[in-house]
Amino acid sequence: MNAPSTHGFVLPIVLCAMLAAGILVGGALNLTLNATRTAGVHTTATRCRLSAQTALDREKLETQTAFVNYFNSSPSTLNILVWFDTFSEQSIGIGGFDNPMIQNTAINGCQVSVSVVSVDRSPIIAINQTADVTLRATASARSPANVPVTRVIEETVRYAMDRSRVFDYVYFVNNHGWFMGGGVTANGDIRANGDLDLDGQSWINGYAYAAANDDLGWDGSINGIARYLSLNDYWNRKDTRWRPTSPTHQGGDAWAMGYDDKPQDIRKRLHGQQEPLSMPFLGDLQFYQQIAAHEGGTIRQQGRTLVDAYFDGPGPSGLTNGADRGCLVLDGTDKPIRINGPVVVAGDVIIKGKVTGQGTIYSGRNIHIIGNLTYVDPPSWPKPDPHPEQTAQKNAGKDMLGLAAKGNIVIGNYTDSSWMERVEKYITPPWVREYACDPSDASIGYPSVFGGDYAANDGGRQIHYVRNPRTGMYEPTATSARTYYQSSVGDRIIQQNAQSANITQIDAVLYNNHATMGRIGECKFNGAMVCRDEALIYIRSVQFNWDIRLGSYSRDAVNIPLYLPVSPAMPRVIAWQEVLPGGQP
Question: What is the 3-state secondary structure (H, E, C) of 412-481?
Answer without folding.
Answer: CCCCCHHHHHHHHHHHCCCCCCCEECCHHHHHHCCCCEECCCCCCEEEEEEEEEEECCCCCCEEEEEEEE
